[in-house]
C-alpha cells in the first residue's frame, strides 16, 4: 500500500485536501508503525518518490500563504493538511538521518519563516503550531545536517561569517541560527508555556518543552557559555512559579519535571534549589507511582536519574 499511496499523493495538488490529508496521515503512520526490519525500506520508498517530495514541498510552502484564521482553535481542512505535511516532513528527516537513506529530492525551507511561526504564534491554530514545533525540534536535534533539508539563506549567512568581526567568531558557530533568533526563540517557547498553562493543552506543552530541551542541547554543542546563559535566565524561575500556581499544584507535572531536569543538567542553581528537589522526591514518595500517567512517569524517571 505504501507504494501506490505515495504515488497517488504525487499526482495531487495541495488543494486536494480530502484525498491528501488522510493519505499523508497514512504515510506518517506507516513510517512509525512499520516493524524495524522493514522500516528502512519504507523510508527508501518515500524518499525515492520525487513527485511526493515535490508535493510535500508545495504543502509546506502553503503554510506561509495561508491567511490567519478567524479562530485560532478552529482547524480548517487546509490547516489539517498542513499539520499532516509538517509531521510527515519531520518524520522523513528523522528516519533519513537515522538510516542515512539516499535523497533524490530535497525540501527547502526559509528558517526565518519557521521561527516566526513559533515567535508570532497567534496566527496559527494550536495543532499546526504543535506540528511546526515538532519539525523544528527535529532539525535542531540533527544540527541542521540532514541531506534532505536545504535551509534557504544559509549560504548567505555562512558567506557573511567568512569575514569575521571581533565579536562574531563565536556567533559563526551558531549558523544557520543567529544569536538574536536564539534569544527570541527561547523567550517565545517560555511564553508559550505560560500561555498553555491557561489553556491546558497537553500536546503543545509537551512539544514546547521538548523543543526547549533540544535548543539548549544544540547550543551546548555550539557554544557552552551561551547554552548555560540561556538555561540560567531568571525568567525560567517565573515560568516554574507560573506552572506551579496554575490549576494543578502538584510538582509532579510532566512539564515541571522536564524543566527541572533541564535546569539540573545545566547546573542552573539560581532556578532550582535543593529544597525544591527534596519536595519533588517527597511528593513522589507519597504518590502511588503505578497510577501516574505515562508522560509523568517518564519525566519523573529522567528527573531522578539526573539527580
From TrEMBL:
Species the sequence originates in: Bucco capensis (collared puffbird)
Name this protein carries in UniProt: MEI1 protein
TM region(s), chain numbering: none
GO biological process, one term: meiosis I
Signal sequence, renumbered to the chain: none
Taxonomic superkingdom: Eukaryota
Amino acid at each position: 500500500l505504501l507504494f501506490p499511496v505515495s504515488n497517488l499523493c504525487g499526482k495531487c495538488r495541495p488543494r486536494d485536501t480530502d484525498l491528501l490529508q488522510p493519505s499523508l496521515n497514512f504515510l506518517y503512520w506507516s513510517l512509525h508503525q512499520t516493524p524495524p526490519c522493514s522500516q528502512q525500506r519504507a523510508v527508501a520508498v518515500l524518499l525515492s518518490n520525487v513527485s511526493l517530495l515535490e508535493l510535500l514541498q508545495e504543502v509546506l510552502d502553503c503554510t506561509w500563504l495561508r491567511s490567519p484564521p478567524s479562530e485560532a482553535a478552529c482547524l480548517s481542512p487546509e490547516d489539517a493538511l498542513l499539520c499532516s505535511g509538517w509531521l510527515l516532513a519531520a518524520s522523513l528527516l528523522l528516519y533519513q538521518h537515522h538510516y542515512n537513506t539516499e535523497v533524490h529530492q530535497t525540501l527547502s525551507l526559509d528558517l526565518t519563516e519557521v521561527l516566526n511561526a513559533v515567535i508570532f504564534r497567534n496566527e496559527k491554530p494550536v495543532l499546526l503550531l504543535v506540528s511546526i514545533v515538532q519539525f523544528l525540534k527535529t532539525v535542531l536535534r540533527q544540527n541542521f545536517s540532514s541531506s534532505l533539508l536545504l535551509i534557504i539563506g544559509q549560504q548567505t549567512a555562512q558567506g557573511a561569517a567568512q569575514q569575521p568581526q571581533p565579536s562574531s567568531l563565536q556567533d559563526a558557530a551558531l549558523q544557520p541560527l543567529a544569536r538574536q533568533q536564539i534569544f527570541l526563540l527561547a523567550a517565545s517557547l517560555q511564553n508559550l508555556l505560560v500561555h498553555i498553562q491557561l489553556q491546558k493543552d497537553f500536546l503543545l506543552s509537551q512539544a514546547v518543552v521538548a523543543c526547549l530541551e533540544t535548543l539548549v542541547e544544540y547550543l551546548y554543542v555550539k557554544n557552552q557559555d551561551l547554552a548555560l546563559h540561556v538555561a540560567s535566565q531568571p525568567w525560567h524561575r517565573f515560568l516554574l512559579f507560573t506552572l506551579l500556581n496554575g490549576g494543578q499544584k502538584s510538582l509532579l507535572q510532566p512539564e515541571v519535571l522536564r524543566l527541572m531536569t533541564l535546569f539540573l543538567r545545566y547546573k542552573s542553581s539560581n532556578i532550582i534549589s535543593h529544597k525544591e528537589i527534596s519536595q519533588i522526591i517527597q511528593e513522589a514518595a507519597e504518590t502511588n507511582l503505578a497510577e501516574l500517567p505515562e508522560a509523568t512517569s517518564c519525566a519523573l524517571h529522567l528527573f531522578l536519574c539526573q539527580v
